[in-house]
Structures are given as C-alpha cells and as structure tokens.
Records
---
Amino acid sequence: MSLGDTKLTCSVIVVEDEPLIAADIEFAAEDAGCEVLGIARTIDEAFELLEAKACQGAILDANLNGESARPVMDYLEEKAVPYIIVSGYLRSQLDLVKEETVMIGKPFSLSELTDTIRQEIYQKSKCANPDQSEAAE
C-alpha cells in the first residue's frame, strides 16, 4: 500500500532527535496511512506539539540527546494515546520502557516500522484502519 492509495486516517507525532532517522520514521508513518503532525527533537518540542495538536499516536525515541523521553511516555499513557518506541538501546538497557510497550530497535527496516505502526497505532487508537477504509470504498 502506498501513500497515494491511502487516505490519511490517523494523526501522529514523531519524537526523534536525529534528523535522518526522523525522516525515515515520518516516511514509514505516512506509508502506514498516517498524517505526521510534526517532528519534535526535544522533550520541550514534544510537549509543544502535544499541547497544540491532538494526535492519535506517537513514534518516539526513548533518549533525546541524553534526556529520557519518559515524561512524554507518561503524558501519552495518561491521555491513552498509543505509542511506539524506536531506540538504539535494548529493552534491558531502558528501565523507563514498560514491558508491554512496543519497541523497535535501531537500525530498523522501513517495512517493519510501517507494519508496526499499522498494527499498534491503528489497533489501539480510534483511527480507521486504512485496509478497512479501502475495502469500504
């Protein structure tokens, strides 16, 4: 499924401090049928985005320039917004990531991330599944 074939049905934010990785995440999210509302490179920028725009999901790095993304995770959990962690660290190295949190390791394949966004963001949010939207047309 390509972006041209998919109606954007879910809005997400990306929280990633590395610009090239953020661009890959944005591409995967769009390919999964999401509208990327913005990219935050710091915790402060993430909260600015979250306060300015209602999102239905998030894809974030656990560590932003040495700063833990736990406050953003806590906020998303409080608001029941599903999120995916993309990190170069192993789960065992990140005490801040809960066992049930979906985590993808860096480097990642775009297809793995795209599929995970479809499975996790769409299943756990109020987004319409792009596959179901296409079937209804």
---
Amino acid sequence: MRKVLNSRSWWIEIPSYNTLFNLNWQPLSTNIKFDRLKLTPFKQIVNHFEGQKELSSKLNLLINLQTFCEENRKFLFDIIPITYFLDLDHLEKFDVEFQDFLNCFLGKSSLFRSTSLNLGSYKLMKRNFYKKGCLYSQPRNYATLNCGNNVWILKPADYNRGRGIRLFNTLEDLQLILLEYERFELENYNVLNNNDKTSNNKPLLKFVGRTVNLTQKILRKGSENKEELKRNILKILNSSKLKTRRFIIQKYIENPFLINERKFDMRVWVLLNHEMNVFFFREGYIRTSSEIYNLNENELENPYIHLTNNAIQKNSEKYGTFEKGNQLSFHQLDVKLFEFIKVFFKDFQRYLREINSKIRVRKHLVPNMKEIILLCFRAAQMKLNSNNRQFCFEIFGFDFMIDASFSLWLLEINTNPCLEESSPLLKQLIPRMLGLNFYLIKKKMIKN
C-alpha cells in the first residue's frame, strides 16, 4: 500500500502522530478514533467503517443475511451452505440453534449412510430440518453438499486466515475438537509450524511447548451413545474454560469443482464508500490447495487438502509446485473450465452450448458474484455506518467457491484483505487494485 501511494506525487506520508491528515490507513477499525473525525478545512478519510464487523464477522454476516432473506423472500441457503451459529453469550438462542444443528446432522447421517430411504427416515428428515417461522432459512438439500460423508466445518466466528477451522463428520470428532479448543489457546493454534514439520504432514496443535497429534481419535472408544455425546458436547460448550465464545458450524461442500483434482476458491475485491456506492474490481484470482482432494476420514485433518487460505497453504511442502503462489487468474480458470467441458462433453454441439452459455467466469460467475455482493451490502447497510460518518471507505475481500454443478457459494467476507504480493500474479493485481482505489478516493471524496 505504501509503495502504491509513494508512486503518486499527490500523496505524502506524514508521521502517525500528526492529526492533520487527509487519509488515515489502519489495519483494524479499532485503531481509528471515529469520534475525533471532524469537519476541518480539509477532508479526513479513513479506510474502515465502524460497523464493518456486520459483514466480516461470520456470525454477524449469517444473522444479517438470514434477516434480509426472510424479509425479501430469498432462500438463504441458496447463497451460503447450510449454516448454524453458536453464540455462548446468548444461551437461549444457542440451545435452539445447537439442537437444530444436531437434528440436521443426525438426519443427514440417517439419510446418506443408510442403504435405502425408508418412510421413517423421510419423516425424521422432514421434522428435523424444519425451522418454525423461518420459511426462507430452511436447509436446502443440494447434491454437491452431500455425497454420503456428512462432513461439516467448524469455524471460530471472529477469526480469519484459516485460524481454528476444523472439519468433522462424527459427533465424536466434534467433541474432540471442542476439547482441544478448551485446552489450548486459539491464538497459539498453528496448522503446521515450519519448525515442526512431521514426516506425514499431519497438523499439530501447539501450546506451551507441548504437541498433540490430532490424528489420534482417543475419544471414540466408549462414545457410541449419541445422547451421551450431545450432553458431553453441551458441557464443553458451556465451560468457562472455552476461549472462543462464538462459532459457526457449516455444511462442507463435499463435491466442489476441482482444478487438476485439487480444491480452490475465488477471491474478489470490492470497494464501498460512505455513500454506499459499490465498486467491483474485475480482476479476481483463484487460490488453490497443494494436495489432491479426497474425503477419506483420515484426511479431514489435512488443511493442505481442504483449506485454500494462503496463510495455510504457504506452510505446505508442495506450496507453489503446481502454480506460483498457489494462485491463478480468472483467465487461467476459464482455460481450466474450457478443458474440463471439452473432455466431459463428447458431443460437440452440446459442448459448444455449454461453453457459450455456462462456464465463462466473466459471463456467468461474475454476475452472480455481483448479485450476492449487493445482497450482502443491502443486508447490513443500516449497520455499517450507523452514525453516518463522512468519508469512510472499506476494501472487502469476498471469497467464493463453485461446486461440481457450477453453483456459486459465498464462503466469507474479509475486511483488510491480505495485500501480500505472494505471487507474480498478485504483484500485478494488488498495485492495480489499490491504484484504482486511491484514484476513486481522490475523485469521489477529495475533489467533491
């Protein structure tokens, strides 16, 4: 960011203690004293909104989207995978939400692990999935979410860069994960420390000099009773020792679209100013995983298969083996999609129809991205700048995934997205994106 500003003669950096600034760029909104921003002879601009956590917090995003979708008759789980929030500071809501999750989890276990779907299983699914008074927040049964493995993902609601994210497909595993959260400080959780790489690349938890291998399913023995497991999980969640108080439990996309048999997601940058004008930077990029995708139970703990965050992948021994910095441009994704369809559809006419109508990133995926992005801003617009602060803006990083049927899913929204030039591609895109951002600031805020 500093390099981009220094290349523009109309911006001059001043010491951080100087209050006579035009632009105050901070990594976190908590570093900005919004109440001190006053109308001076010149305009003072800051790069955050007071209410940015209404979007960047996974829990707040879910609540805002759920409210908006119910009011506007849109199906929430057409936008994001089936999601439940656990807020331990609001126990009444927590009890209802956690029971809804258990019903859905056990219902899917009954449906997808049985050899046939009998009438009893169908009634169980129908009863367990239904939420009273929430017509547009009912779980939606997409085939790409459920391939028989019943894999779910647990995320601390207020963390980013992949910290603390875990996968599970049994209540025994969920119990084990929560016990680990209880025992260890989340801030000291490292998926794989560079100094402690093991021969089989299994992730370790690190805490006060000790290591615990997560591949040991020590709690599975004697834990067959589901009611006992539920009681144990609730006991752990209500423990005062638990460091993190807010979690998201989300259905894992079991059948994603793959590039060379590996998982990926898409990052796009979006600028929002205090007038609620939205600017979409058209050149997003792809973040790939380092290892071949599979859902084997003993590989659910391998972050280099399932988590595409660069902060995670850069610790892999295979990082950069397939793509520089594990990143691709939208154009390169178009080529991969083109190659896939060409092989998949042997009938040439059908192949041409699919190419032209379905899989171009800019023709098909980007318009869907923009629609979801605008929906998210509409869902939170009354809370983002509730005090009507002038001359605020924010760059958000929206993360999306496409599944094997080319459906688009929103994963999360990041404030202060990573600006590390970790590949030749990002060395081109980030300065270009920031340069356009500052051009718009100068044009829309300072000159006006």
---
Amino acid sequence: MDNTSGGTNNSGILSADVASRINLNNQTITGGTLNGGGTFTGGGNFNNGVSVTGTLDLTGSSLTTTGGLTLNGQANITNNQGLYLNGDQTIGGTSTLSLGTLASGSTASTVGNLLIYGTATVVPTITVDALNGSLQGYAYGGTLVNQGTLQASGAGRSLSISTGLVNNGAIVANGAGSTVTVSSSTTGNGTVSTGTGGTVTFSGGSAIQQAAGTSQIDGNVNLGSGSTFTVAGGTLKGTGTVTGNVVSNGGTVAPGDSPGTLTVNGNFTQNSPAALEIEFANTAHDTLVVSGNAALNQGLLNVSFLGTTVNSSSFSTFSFLSYGGTLSGSTTSDPLMLFSNEFKSATYDSSYGITNGHYVNGPAGPYSSGSIYLLTQNTGSLLITPKQISPAAAPEPSQYAAFAIGLLGLGALALKARKRATAA
C-alpha cells in the first residue's frame, strides 16, 4: 500500500499485516506505533518517539527522527541511505539495526548510514549490525553512547565509526576479514571482542577501559598511538593480539582459550588486585607474550591444571610469560617476588624436589597429595614448574606440638635426675 496523500499521523497505530508493505512516502509520523508483521518503507520524519514493531526498510529513502525511536522489529538501512538522529535521543527496543549490504555476484555492495546530530544513546537490548555500515557524527561532533552492541559479525563485514563514541556496551568484529574501525575519540567502560580473523582498530586517540564483562580477543585489536587498554574489571582473554599497551588494575588477564597464547605488542603492567590466570594441561599451557616491558606490580598469579588424567612425565618447566624488554616489580627487597600470593619456601624433603625458591599455591593441582608451582626466571621469560608435595614432606602443626611436649617431658626427667644427684 502506498500512502501518497501527505500529511501527519498523530499518535495512532498504523498496521501492516504479514507479507504486506506500507510506503510511508516521506510523511511525518508524530508519536504512535507502526505495528504488525509487515514492512514499512518510504522514509520521512518520525517525531516524539515513534515505536516500530514491524520491519523498517530504508532501502530507497532516508528517515529523520526526533524525540527517540523504539525498534522492536528488524530495521534495514541500505543503498547509501541513512537514519538521521536529530538532537539528543535514545534508540530503544529489542531489535537489530542492520547497516548496508555486501556484494553478491554482479550486485555491488551498498552502505547504510547512521548519522548523529547531538547525543544518541543505544540501549543494551539493541544491536547495530553492519554488513557495510558507517556511524557518523554531525552538528558539532555528535556522540553515540553505546549501551548495546556495535558489530560487524560475519566474513568480510565492516563498520566505520567517525562519531564521538562512549562505549559502555560491546564492540565486536567476528568473522574472517571483518573490521570495525573507530577514527574518533573513544571513552567508556565496555568490552571489545574479536573472533578469528576479525579486527577492531582505534585510531582517534582512545582511552579503552573495561569495567566488567569479558573481552574475548581471538583476532586483533589495534590501539591508536599512545593508547592503552585498561582492564579495571572483568576479564581480557583469548588467542589474539592487542597492539598497544595493556594495564590490568583490577580485572583478570587470562591468555588463551584453555589453553593458548595471548600477545601484547606493547608493554604490559599488572597492579594489585588484578590477576594473571594461567592454565596448563598434560601437553599444552597458557602463555602471555609481551613484545615490550612487563611490570608486575603485585596482584595475583592463579595457576590451575586442566583435566583429570595425570601424565607425570609431561610436567616439565614451561614459560607462562615472555617479554622482549625488561621485567620489573614493586618488591625491591626481592625482585623475583612479583605477585602478592607468591611466597619464598623453606626447604622441604629433598626427595620431592622441593628446595628454597619462589612458589605460588594453585587452586587446582595435578597431584592428589597436593601441588605448588615453582617460579623461576630465564632470559626474557618467567617459568613455572609443577611440584608435588607429600603430606610427610612438611610436618603438620600437631606433629610440632607432640614434638614440643616430648621435649618438655625429657627436660622434666633430666631435672629430677639432677635433683636426686644433688641430694645424694
């Protein structure tokens, strides 16, 4: 159905049945709901918070909104058209906003644009999914506050962000050749994730900080010159590469995907109470590879064993952190004591191979009689050697008590003997 009469629909309900199409023909919709299982096309102007529960298809025309927009159905922006967010407003609902198309056969790719005049907020239940999309800021910069997900999820997909960005949600590039490029300044406390072959690039002078959640990096994250990825909370993990500096202040850095290697092309700093989590199995282990300097200013080293079957011959020394620059820590009296749960052991029974050195207790060990993990340093790396502790290797407190009582008893007998000798 085509609406060609012009005019305004004020706060009513316009319904499109399943498989039907309604052409809005660039009209002004003020409030109300576009309802049903059909498709609304034609663009125009939405004022005062229009709600769409059907499919919004902006293939041949653009749409300007003021006062917010609620999307509870699919929204598609293609063919170089745009959704113009005029003034401060919120995109709400539970929808996916799809930007652009990919080339298919003889059909060229097209761009879908989200254009921001003011500050626009994307709620947590909204996903902006770009096949070939752009987020652009106008009118004195424009800012997008992302509480949902901005993603290029699929092989060859791309999302370009040039508006100011406050990322309190998620940025995701997932799929071979998928890219998210942020050329504007970025702040916020959200996560950044990449699948294998995916790349997220920040080039606009960004302060990337994660307060909670998980950044799963199995592809590449490229930070702008001088930028830092700060893990203030949550977990940074994966088998990919972060190009830039990483500072862990209160979260967990967990290399690998049980297990595997995470690479930092830059410097790595860990401060208390952050944790470095290392897992190992019979034939593989986690490694954090740092091309620059590693500064371990306390915090935890959590070591755990994967699996239930123990192959004792496999438990040899392995590197859990390698660095291309220098290694430093905050404990000046003993530079090797770089973690707050690390301790310098007394000598145990030599038959178990436990001697003076630096150790950490692991939450899970490969030996039923107990395990600790010996830490040593080699040129350019820190090493772990699993060690078995027998209950007989170190006396229990009760044994010390019994020994002390025995000494007291012997002392008393000796005193009585001396008294008898004196009396004689």
